[in-house]
Design a protein that fits this description.
The complex is a heterodimer of chains A (137) and B (128).
Chain A lengths: L23 H32 L1 H11 L2 H28 L6 H28 L6
Helix pairs in contact in A: 1-2, 1-3, 3-4
Chain B lengths: L1 H49 L3 H10 L1 H29 L2 H31 L2
The chains are: A mainly alpha (137), B mainly alpha (128).
Chain lengths: 137, 128
Amino acid sequence: MSQIPPNTPLRPLSPHLQVWRWHITMFSSIMHRVTGSASVAGAILVAAWLVALALGREHYTCFLTLASSPLGLLVWFGLSLAGFVHLTGGLRHLIWDTGAGFEPKKADQIALWTMILGVILTLAFWAVLFASGKVAL
Amino acid sequence: MSTDRNVGAKSVKSWKQSAHHGAGEWLAERGTSLVLIPLTLWAAYAAFTVAGGGFDAAVAFARVPLNSALIGLTMLISVWHMYMGIKVIVDDYLQGGLRGFTMFLNILLSAALLIATGYALFVLHQGA
Protein backbone atom coordinates (compact mmCIF):
# COMPACT_ATOMS: atom_id res chain seq x y z
CA MET A 1 0.00 0.00 0.00
CA SER A 2 3.02 2.30 0.43
CA GLN A 3 3.21 3.17 -3.28
CA ILE A 4 -0.24 4.83 -3.18
CA PRO A 5 0.13 8.60 -2.58
CA PRO A 6 -1.43 9.56 0.77
CA ASN A 7 -3.90 11.98 -0.87
CA THR A 8 -5.50 9.38 -3.11
CA PRO A 9 -9.16 8.68 -2.27
CA LEU A 10 -9.79 5.01 -1.63
CA ARG A 11 -12.61 4.95 -4.14
CA PRO A 12 -11.07 5.74 -7.55
CA LEU A 13 -12.87 7.69 -10.25
CA SER A 14 -13.37 6.26 -13.72
CA PRO A 15 -10.97 7.68 -16.34
CA HIS A 16 -12.61 10.43 -18.34
CA LEU A 17 -13.29 10.55 -22.07
CA GLN A 18 -10.04 12.19 -23.16
CA VAL A 19 -7.73 9.34 -22.12
CA TRP A 20 -9.12 6.87 -24.67
CA ARG A 21 -8.41 6.32 -28.34
CA TRP A 22 -11.76 6.55 -30.13
CA HIS A 23 -13.28 3.34 -31.45
CA ILE A 24 -16.79 2.06 -32.08
CA THR A 25 -17.38 -0.02 -28.94
CA MET A 26 -16.23 2.97 -26.90
CA PHE A 27 -18.56 5.25 -28.83
CA SER A 28 -21.51 2.89 -28.34
CA SER A 29 -20.70 2.58 -24.64
CA ILE A 30 -20.75 6.37 -24.27
CA MET A 31 -23.93 6.57 -26.36
CA HIS A 32 -25.55 4.00 -24.09
CA ARG A 33 -25.03 6.35 -21.13
CA VAL A 34 -26.06 9.42 -23.14
CA THR A 35 -29.25 7.79 -24.48
CA GLY A 36 -30.02 6.36 -21.04
CA SER A 37 -29.68 9.80 -19.45
CA ALA A 38 -31.83 11.34 -22.20
CA SER A 39 -34.47 8.71 -21.50
CA VAL A 40 -34.74 10.09 -17.98
CA ALA A 41 -36.09 13.29 -19.58
CA GLY A 42 -38.40 11.07 -21.63
CA ALA A 43 -39.79 9.45 -18.49
CA ILE A 44 -40.38 12.88 -16.94
CA LEU A 45 -42.32 14.00 -20.05
CA VAL A 46 -44.38 10.79 -20.14
CA ALA A 47 -45.27 11.35 -16.48
CA ALA A 48 -46.16 14.97 -17.37
CA TRP A 49 -48.40 13.65 -20.18
CA LEU A 50 -50.19 11.35 -17.75
CA VAL A 51 -50.65 14.05 -15.10
CA ALA A 52 -51.94 16.52 -17.73
CA LEU A 53 -54.42 13.88 -18.84
CA ALA A 54 -55.59 13.31 -15.26
CA LEU A 55 -55.98 17.07 -14.65
CA GLY A 56 -58.60 17.28 -17.38
CA ARG A 57 -59.32 18.59 -20.84
CA GLU A 58 -57.98 22.12 -20.36
CA HIS A 59 -54.58 21.05 -19.07
CA TYR A 60 -54.32 18.27 -21.64
CA THR A 61 -55.06 20.65 -24.51
CA CYS A 62 -52.32 22.94 -23.22
CA PHE A 63 -49.94 19.97 -23.08
CA LEU A 64 -50.91 18.92 -26.61
CA THR A 65 -50.31 22.42 -27.99
CA LEU A 66 -46.74 22.24 -26.74
CA ALA A 67 -46.23 18.55 -27.60
CA SER A 68 -47.47 18.87 -31.18
CA SER A 69 -45.62 22.09 -31.99
CA PRO A 70 -42.58 21.72 -34.29
CA LEU A 71 -40.23 22.12 -31.33
CA GLY A 72 -42.31 19.64 -29.32
CA LEU A 73 -42.15 17.10 -32.13
CA LEU A 74 -38.38 17.58 -32.37
CA VAL A 75 -38.11 16.85 -28.64
CA TRP A 76 -40.28 13.70 -28.97
CA PHE A 77 -38.19 12.63 -31.99
CA GLY A 78 -34.97 13.05 -30.01
CA LEU A 79 -36.39 11.17 -27.03
CA SER A 80 -37.68 8.33 -29.21
CA LEU A 81 -34.26 8.11 -30.88
CA ALA A 82 -32.62 7.95 -27.44
CA GLY A 83 -35.13 5.31 -26.32
CA PHE A 84 -34.73 3.07 -29.36
CA VAL A 85 -30.91 3.36 -29.45
CA HIS A 86 -30.81 2.59 -25.72
CA LEU A 87 -33.12 -0.39 -26.32
CA THR A 88 -30.94 -1.89 -29.06
CA GLY A 89 -27.78 -0.98 -27.12
CA GLY A 90 -29.30 -2.85 -24.18
CA LEU A 91 -29.81 -5.89 -26.41
CA ARG A 92 -26.06 -5.75 -27.15
CA HIS A 93 -25.30 -5.77 -23.43
CA LEU A 94 -27.66 -8.71 -22.88
CA ILE A 95 -25.89 -10.60 -25.69
CA TRP A 96 -22.56 -9.88 -24.00
CA ASP A 97 -23.97 -11.05 -20.67
CA THR A 98 -24.35 -14.53 -22.16
CA GLY A 99 -20.60 -14.48 -22.81
CA ALA A 100 -21.00 -14.21 -26.59
CA GLY A 101 -19.73 -11.56 -29.01
CA PHE A 102 -16.56 -10.46 -27.21
CA GLU A 103 -14.16 -11.06 -30.12
CA PRO A 104 -13.01 -7.56 -31.20
CA LYS A 105 -14.39 -7.92 -34.72
CA LYS A 106 -17.75 -9.29 -33.55
CA ALA A 107 -18.00 -6.71 -30.77
CA ASP A 108 -17.44 -3.93 -33.33
CA GLN A 109 -20.07 -5.37 -35.66
CA ILE A 110 -22.66 -5.78 -32.89
CA ALA A 111 -22.01 -2.22 -31.70
CA LEU A 112 -22.42 -0.84 -35.21
CA TRP A 113 -25.52 -2.84 -36.11
CA THR A 114 -27.38 -2.29 -32.86
CA MET A 115 -26.90 1.47 -33.29
CA ILE A 116 -28.09 1.32 -36.91
CA LEU A 117 -31.09 -0.78 -35.84
CA GLY A 118 -31.98 1.83 -33.20
CA VAL A 119 -31.93 4.58 -35.83
CA ILE A 120 -33.99 2.45 -38.27
CA LEU A 121 -36.63 1.71 -35.59
CA THR A 122 -36.89 5.43 -34.82
CA LEU A 123 -37.26 6.41 -38.48
CA ALA A 124 -39.81 3.63 -39.08
CA PHE A 125 -41.82 4.73 -36.01
CA TRP A 126 -42.00 8.31 -37.27
CA ALA A 127 -42.63 7.28 -40.86
CA VAL A 128 -45.72 5.35 -39.66
CA LEU A 129 -46.81 8.29 -37.46
CA PHE A 130 -46.62 10.73 -40.38
CA ALA A 131 -47.99 8.29 -42.98
CA SER A 132 -51.07 7.56 -40.84
CA GLY A 133 -51.76 11.29 -40.54
CA LYS A 134 -51.65 11.08 -36.72
CA VAL A 135 -48.78 13.54 -36.66
CA ALA A 136 -48.30 16.49 -38.98
CA LEU A 137 -45.95 19.41 -39.13
CA MET B 1 -6.04 16.52 1.99
CA SER B 2 -7.15 14.24 4.76
CA THR B 3 -10.81 15.01 4.01
CA ASP B 4 -10.46 13.18 0.70
CA ARG B 5 -9.06 10.25 2.59
CA ASN B 6 -12.08 10.31 4.91
CA VAL B 7 -14.47 10.32 1.98
CA GLY B 8 -12.65 7.26 0.68
CA ALA B 9 -12.71 5.57 4.06
CA LYS B 10 -16.46 6.05 4.15
CA SER B 11 -16.86 4.33 0.82
CA VAL B 12 -15.01 1.22 2.05
CA LYS B 13 -18.19 0.53 3.99
CA SER B 14 -20.25 0.73 0.81
CA TRP B 15 -17.78 -1.58 -0.94
CA LYS B 16 -18.35 -4.13 1.78
CA GLN B 17 -22.10 -3.71 1.48
CA SER B 18 -21.79 -4.07 -2.27
CA ALA B 19 -19.93 -7.35 -1.79
CA HIS B 20 -23.04 -8.76 -0.14
CA HIS B 21 -25.69 -7.59 -2.56
CA GLY B 22 -23.70 -6.94 -5.76
CA ALA B 23 -25.17 -10.04 -7.40
CA GLY B 24 -28.66 -8.81 -6.62
CA GLU B 25 -27.92 -5.44 -8.26
CA TRP B 26 -26.47 -7.19 -11.30
CA LEU B 27 -29.56 -9.37 -11.61
CA ALA B 28 -31.90 -6.40 -11.08
CA GLU B 29 -30.17 -4.49 -13.91
CA ARG B 30 -30.54 -7.44 -16.29
CA GLY B 31 -34.03 -8.34 -15.10
CA THR B 32 -35.39 -4.81 -15.57
CA SER B 33 -33.67 -4.64 -19.00
CA LEU B 34 -35.34 -7.85 -20.15
CA VAL B 35 -38.78 -6.81 -18.89
CA LEU B 36 -38.39 -3.35 -20.47
CA ILE B 37 -37.93 -4.80 -23.98
CA PRO B 38 -41.61 -5.76 -24.41
CA LEU B 39 -42.78 -2.84 -22.24
CA THR B 40 -40.89 -0.28 -24.37
CA LEU B 41 -42.30 -1.75 -27.58
CA TRP B 42 -45.78 -1.63 -26.02
CA ALA B 43 -45.16 2.02 -25.03
CA ALA B 44 -44.26 2.83 -28.66
CA TYR B 45 -47.51 1.13 -29.75
CA ALA B 46 -49.43 3.06 -27.06
CA ALA B 47 -47.87 6.37 -28.20
CA PHE B 48 -48.92 5.54 -31.76
CA THR B 49 -52.48 4.76 -30.60
CA VAL B 50 -52.85 7.93 -28.54
CA ALA B 51 -51.12 10.28 -31.03
CA GLY B 52 -53.44 12.65 -32.85
CA GLY B 53 -56.54 11.45 -30.98
CA GLY B 54 -56.98 14.34 -28.58
CA PHE B 55 -58.26 14.29 -25.00
CA ASP B 56 -61.17 11.85 -25.27
CA ALA B 57 -59.22 9.14 -27.08
CA ALA B 58 -56.32 9.44 -24.62
CA VAL B 59 -58.59 9.24 -21.56
CA ALA B 60 -60.45 6.26 -23.04
CA PHE B 61 -57.13 4.53 -23.74
CA ALA B 62 -55.67 5.20 -20.29
CA ARG B 63 -58.84 3.99 -18.52
CA VAL B 64 -58.76 0.53 -20.08
CA PRO B 65 -57.63 -1.57 -17.07
CA LEU B 66 -54.93 -3.45 -19.03
CA ASN B 67 -53.54 -0.16 -20.37
CA SER B 68 -53.56 1.42 -16.90
CA ALA B 69 -51.71 -1.59 -15.53
CA LEU B 70 -49.14 -1.50 -18.34
CA ILE B 71 -48.61 2.27 -17.95
CA GLY B 72 -48.04 1.78 -14.21
CA LEU B 73 -45.76 -1.24 -14.73
CA THR B 74 -43.73 0.47 -17.47
CA MET B 75 -43.17 3.53 -15.28
CA LEU B 76 -42.33 1.43 -12.21
CA ILE B 77 -39.76 -0.77 -13.98
CA SER B 78 -38.37 2.23 -15.93
CA VAL B 79 -37.87 4.25 -12.75
CA TRP B 80 -36.16 1.28 -11.05
CA HIS B 81 -33.90 0.80 -14.11
CA MET B 82 -33.19 4.56 -14.31
CA TYR B 83 -32.33 4.77 -10.62
CA MET B 84 -29.74 2.02 -11.02
CA GLY B 85 -28.39 3.51 -14.26
CA ILE B 86 -27.94 6.98 -12.75
CA LYS B 87 -26.25 5.40 -9.72
CA VAL B 88 -23.72 3.63 -11.97
CA ILE B 89 -22.83 6.91 -13.73
CA VAL B 90 -22.70 8.86 -10.45
CA ASP B 91 -20.41 6.23 -8.88
CA ASP B 92 -18.06 6.53 -11.86
CA TYR B 93 -17.71 10.30 -11.97
CA LEU B 94 -18.68 11.88 -8.65
CA GLN B 95 -17.28 11.65 -5.13
CA GLY B 96 -17.99 12.88 -1.64
CA GLY B 97 -20.71 15.42 -0.97
CA LEU B 98 -21.53 15.93 -4.63
CA ARG B 99 -22.09 12.19 -5.02
CA GLY B 100 -24.37 12.13 -1.99
CA PHE B 101 -26.32 15.16 -3.19
CA THR B 102 -26.78 13.73 -6.69
CA MET B 103 -27.96 10.42 -5.26
CA PHE B 104 -30.40 12.33 -3.07
CA LEU B 105 -31.77 14.02 -6.21
CA ASN B 106 -31.92 10.58 -7.86
CA ILE B 107 -34.11 9.24 -5.04
CA LEU B 108 -36.22 12.41 -5.12
CA LEU B 109 -36.78 12.16 -8.88
CA SER B 110 -37.64 8.45 -8.69
CA ALA B 111 -40.16 9.08 -5.91
CA ALA B 112 -41.68 12.06 -7.74
CA LEU B 113 -42.15 10.06 -10.95
CA LEU B 114 -43.79 7.15 -9.14
CA ILE B 115 -46.06 9.41 -7.07
CA ALA B 116 -47.07 11.41 -10.17
CA THR B 117 -47.86 8.20 -12.09
CA GLY B 118 -49.81 6.68 -9.22
CA TYR B 119 -51.71 9.92 -8.61
CA ALA B 120 -52.63 10.35 -12.28
CA LEU B 121 -53.80 6.75 -12.67
CA PHE B 122 -55.84 7.06 -9.45
CA VAL B 123 -57.52 10.29 -10.62
CA LEU B 124 -58.25 8.83 -14.07
CA HIS B 125 -60.07 5.90 -12.49
CA GLN B 126 -61.90 8.07 -9.95
CA GLY B 127 -63.44 9.98 -12.83
CA ALA B 128 -64.38 6.87 -14.76
